[in-house]
Amino acid sequence: MARTSYAARIRSRIAELEGVIKAAEAELNDLRIAERVIESLGPDDDLESAPYPRSAKSRTVADLIADILTAHGPLESRDIFEKAKAVHDTTPNTVSTTLSRMKDQGLVVLQGRHWGLINKDNILNDPALMLRTEEDVIADWEAQMADVNKKAATP
Questions:
Q1: Rounded to two decimals, what is the model's pTM?
Q2: Paired residues of 115 in beta bridges
Q3: What are the Cα distances from residue 135, in Å, to 42, 61, 120, 125, 141?
Q4: φ and ψ at 123, to 5 degrees?
Q5: What pLDDT digit, counting tens, does each position of 98-150 carry?
Q6: Are 89 and 42 in contact (CB under 8 A)?
Q7: What are the angstrom distances between the C-alpha of 102 and each of 18, 40, 77, 118, 126?
């Protein structure tokens, strides 16, 4: 039985490793191309880095506005637009119209120039909240706005 020499085994292993290296270099090149494409899409292409949650279902501007108001509290419409524009191709008119429709549906409230979210889940799940008058909601809203202004004034 013929035995393979050490030199032949080493040459065989070198050839095997060179093949692995070529495959790894090809994969590395593909990954670099993919990385450049993803970076060209901007910072919001990654679900974890997105400023507002995204779901598999189709997102509407109203969903986005609700996410923004949930994350930031009461905001002026121009601030809502700026935050929405960062993640969705929209216009100030679309945001304004959507806010008005959301107000008509009882989803948001306008106090002065600030829009705020009314959490209907809380209202529906808490019988005490179902009995609240519009004046109660506005009083709570004003207290929340005072807290927002206080935080904004704190350096």
A1: 0.46
A2: 75, 110
A3: 44, 28, 17, 20, 10
A4: -65, -45
A5: 999 988 888 888 888 888 887 654 444 444 444 456 676 677 777 777 777 77
A6: no
A7: 63, 34, 13, 10, 22
Which token pair is 145? 């706005």
Q: Are the C-beta atoms of 37 and 43 separated by less than 8 Å?
A: no
Beta strands in the chain (DSSP E): 75-76, 108-111, 114-117
Tokens of 24: 């790894």
| CA neighbor of 65 nearest in space, from 56, 49, 78 | 78
Tokens 């039985």: give the residue.
Answer: 1
CB-based contact 138:111 (threshold 8 Å): yes
Structure tokens at 142: 């004003």
